[in-house]
Structure formats: C-alpha cells, structure tokens
Amino acid sequence: MSPASNTLWEWLAGIQPDERFALCAVLVVFGTVALIFIVAIIGQAVRSIYQGRLEDTLKRDLLDRGLAAEEITKILAAPFTTPHLKPTRHGRSAPKESGHVLVE
C-alpha cells in the first residue's frame, strides 16, 4: 500500500501516543492563533463599514442643516476630542469637576 493511499486515521494510528499529544498541542496552538487572526480581520472590516456609515449619516445630516461642503470638510478633518474629560494620572479620562452637587 502506498503512503498516499493511507487515510488520516491510519496515519494517526501509526504515531506513538506521546507524539500524537504533541501534534494535537501544536495544532491547537496554531488553530487558536489562526482563529484570533481571522476574528481580528473580520472585526476590522465590520468596524470600517460601521465607521463609513456613520460618516455618511453625519455628512447627510450636515448637508440637511445647510452647511457648505467646505465647512463639512473642515468638520470631518478636525480631530476628535472630548473637552468635558480630563486625563487622570493613570491615563484614563475622568469627568471634570463642575462645582455642581447632585442632591436627591
């Protein structure tokens, strides 16, 4: 019988149990890395599509409000900032203190 005609199960039966375990461990590691890579690619594509739809909606809304194309371009080119948040010493953003107290 030629080696090409063997089935996967026949090939695995010829491998020692210790070698089978090592083979399975390597396959699990490579499979996990491949799965993470595929999920990252799909996630990036979905994010890109979602961001494009948001930008299109914003452009339509700004046009409906009567803004000129130059103004829309300037708005979209501006960096996104959140002025009501200030960075903390841990790098996270926390709300600025407004001096108002919430009383129930």
Tell me what portion of residues adopts beta-strand conformation: 5-15%
**What letter string, H or E per element, gives the SSE order?**
HHHEE
The value of Rg in angstroms is 28 Å
- The number of distinct β-strands equals 2
Helix content: 55-70%
Q: Kindly report the spatial arrangement of strands forming the biggest sheet.
A: 1-2
Number of continuous helical runs? 3
Structural class: mainly alpha
Shape: elongated
What does this structure look like?
The structure is a single chain. This protein is mainly α and 104 residues long. It has three helices and two strands, in the order αααββ. The protein has one domain. It has a two-stranded antiparallel sheet with strand order 1-2. A hairpin with a 5-residue loop joins β1 (85-87) and β2 (93-95). The model has no long low-confidence stretch (mean pLDDT 81).
Give a short summary of the structure.
By secondary structure, the protein is mostly helical.
